[in-house]
Amino acid sequence: MKRSLPSFGDDALRLRLIEESDLHETLSWRNRDEARVWFKTSTPLTYEQHSNWFHNHYQPKDTDYLFVVEAEGSLVGQASVYAIDWQTRSAEVGRFLADPDHAGRGYISRACGVLLSICWEVLDLEYVFLEVIETNDRAIRLYLKHGFQEEQRYEGLIRMGVRKNLAGIE
What we know:
Blueprint: E1 8-9, E2 14-17, H1 23-30, H2 33-36, H3 47-58, E3 64-71, E4 74-85, E5 90-98, H4 107-122, E6 127-133, H5 137-145, E7 149-154, E8 157-163
Parallel strand pairs: 5-6
Antiparallel strand pairs: 1-2, 2-3, 3-4, 4-5, 6-8, 7-8
């Protein structure tokens, strides 16, 4: 069963767990042509598919946490930590997505930093990784800024990882 987590951040930007009432908005971001090209599964999703994922795959798992990013009194994006392996204290991060009306303001970069703090300080993880399409230069620059290092390339993807002790957290 998924543990309850409080919201994280500061007065300017907060991450909180996604709720059912957020599904329409986050789905509209994900289904935009400009966003879908960066997902491994790039076909548009229906609301029914999104809702089914939320209720039957996301909510029951204690290994998957999707956060919405709030700033300026609005939802401005999302970020996630998932596939958590509690024994090895590792997980994948991703599903970074910006609301197009708030894109380009640094919210996703700041959310990435907050998400890493959650991984290290709240979830007590030691290592996180992500996969990024190798032509997504903007995302790669963001991940490098947050301490991720390239580990492997395959099938048009780059796997990048960061360890807690290398992120300046002991």
